[in-house]
Amino acid sequence: MHILIQGGRVIDPAHQFDAVTDVFVAVGRIAGLGQRPAGFKAERVIDASGHIVCPGLIDLCARLREPGLEHKATIASETRAAAAGGITTLVCPPDTDPVIDEPAVVELIRRRAKAAGHARVLTLGALTHRLRGERLAEMAALKEAGCVGVGDGGRPITNTRVLRRALEYAATFDLTVFLTPLDPELSHGLAHEGQVSTRLGLPGILAAAETGIIARDLELIRDIGVRVHFGRLSCARSVELVARAQAEGLPVSADAAIHHLHLTENDLLGFDSECHVRPPLRSQRDRDALRAGVSNGTLGALCSDHQPHESDAKCGPLGDTEPGISGLDTLLGLSLRLARDHGWPLMTLIERLSWGPARILGLPSGHLGVGAPADLCIFDPDASWRLAASHLRSRGQNSPFIGWELQGRVTHTLFDGELVYAYEA
Q1: Were 400 and a residue from 274, 363, 366, 386 both cysteine, which residue would form a disulfide, CB within 3.0 to 4.6 Å?
Q2: Which of 383, 391, 392 is nearest to 410 (CA)?
């Protein structure tokens, strides 16, 4: 289909492009910016006047619950929610059921995502067999099957000897390794170890549970030279460690989940299970350091860390509830609110949601250059709206942001040149 997106403010961080112009889409690709390509005849015109047109968002961590937990969510339901949030690419960690440690599981997810058709679903392969941290997975086969990287799936490898072998093996096949910096032996608590956990009588999780793992891993990276991405940082010291490693030239990147840039340990007061997340919400100082890390580029991406749950999973005493937030629906709105409140340029914010993640993954998308995949998000930056449970298109309704006023509303999402979402008032 030939689509003309007319009169929008086009922001493309990859090319530092910011201007009011037209975007021409043909046969699933960006056919031109500004000047109409020869012979182009629009079959559909989208009026983007007063709106932002940018690359489709890329979410580095979204658990879609399929295969294995289809009673909580499905690829079809969650990619539909992603499209409504302007997200065109989702990265699925390997902790599915069965674990993504065989090509057959990669193919299953690819087929189901293609059948759904709302967004691109990319997979991370498991570093170790069944994510048990004992013997290495067949990374070469996983790469050949289409995995964009390998990771620990939120189950860090405690055996340093096994981790070293896994990193060496990944480096051999030029794979980026996605690690979760959280020491399993120090992270049996429910909240950040501090005044709030003490006041509530909750077992705490030390910041050292995160920073100690990062320090260990950085020494292995220094020796091996493997590309590593640290997912969902939560501590100020973690940002410092990553910044120092990057300054030394180590091939290291990192991200933060959007909820860690808005919430702190104080939001757990009242034992709010919707704020039970892993890693835990930490201090205001940690939150401010994460914000600074995103602003200055130490943290090259923002993600949703999407974890949809049934309502029962968030009911009962805090210790009996499941950690995680359903975040696809709110990633852009919360990010725009953050940019508005702290004066971040839209160019910077959109870069952390599109081109930044694309570079981490080594994708040819995340930009609006001629010939690039036509994955686009169009949103009204001035629209403010109050989040209600009925607004959440994900099957997971677990969000601490219900009742919050969010900034910006997605009006159209294009995936591979096809209109997969259009807002209806």
Answers
A1: 274
A2: 383
Give me the residue spans of the domains in the chain. 56-361
- The DSSP H or E segment spanning 358 is helix 355-361
Which stretch of DSSP H or E encloses residue 117? none
Q: How many other CB atoms sit within 10 Å of the CB of residue 318?
A: 17
Q: Is 305 a catalytic residue?
A: yes
Q: Please provide the CATH number assigned to the domain covering 56-361.
A: 3.20.20.140
Q: Give the N- to C-terminal CA distance of the chain in Å, as an integer.
A: 25
For 266-424, strand residue ranges (E) read 301-303, 376-386, 405-415, 418-422
408 vs 320: CA distance, rounded Å: 35
The residue from 305, 329, 375, 416 that is catalytic is 305
Q: What confidence tens digit (pLDDT) does each residue in 273-330 have?
A: 999 999 999 999 999 999 999 999 999 999 999 999 999 999 989 999 999 999 999 9
Are the CB atoms for 102 and 128 separated by under 8 Å? no
Instruction: Note the pTM of the prediction, 2 decimals.
Output: 0.97
| Dist CA 51 CA 7 (whole Å) | 8
